[in-house]
């Protein structure tokens, strides 16, 4: 136990592959204080990939579940002996629901739990080199908070992509045979169906 309660910030960026499925990456920075000594505490940084499943994406209240995994860094400030550990965030599970205030903006109360395992330690008091951790243990972190979701960039990017595809289709039909244009039209309609 190297820290007590703390606070953090998390960001993610990705692609809504279907109305239900979001695929992307995330990063998280958190800090934890010591309950007994203000000079002691810990900080973590995580970088990973995740998938979110939205159960009711076309309603104003959209419950979702998120599953992610990544790499994790833990820095421990313990007075005269500071250490750093690196390892994996084996699994990160979050549950929440989007409350959509507009078609492109939502707030999402959520709770989460993550399981991490560190395999390498850096401790200058013992060695200048990285040391393997023999007694690996699973470390649990519980979280709760509010996420803010913006879909504006994705919507604008998809509209721009559709415009480019339509422009390319017109050029293709103009300069190539009609059969090729029909194939491209079918491709565009299929992409529009998948994206909608």
Question: What features would you highlight for this structure?
Answer:
196 residues; alpha+beta; elongated; 2 helices
Q: What Rg is obtained from the alpha carbons, in whole angstroms?
A: 23 Å
Portion of residues in helices? 10-25%
The geometry reads as elongated
**The biggest beta sheet, please?**
8 strands, antiparallel
| Mean pLDDT across all amino acids | 80
- Cα distance, first to last residue? 47 Å
The structural class is: alpha+beta
Number of helices: 2
Q: Spell the H/E element sequence.
A: EEEEEEEEHH
Low-confidence stretches: none
The strand count comes to 8
Strand content: over 45%
Describe the structure in brief.
With 196 residues, the chain is of the alpha+beta class. 21% of the residues lie in helices and 56% in strands.
Question: How does this structure look, described?
Answer:
This protein is of the alpha+beta class. 21% of the residues lie in helices and 56% in strands. The chain is built from 2 helices and 8 strands. It has helices at residues 152-175, 178-195, and strands at residues 6-16, 21-33, 40-54, 61-78, 83-102, 105-122, 131-132, 138-150. Strands 1, 2, 3, 4, 5, 6, 7 and 8 form an 8-stranded antiparallel beta sheet that branches. α1 (152-175) runs antiparallel to α2. The protein is elongated and about 65 Å long.
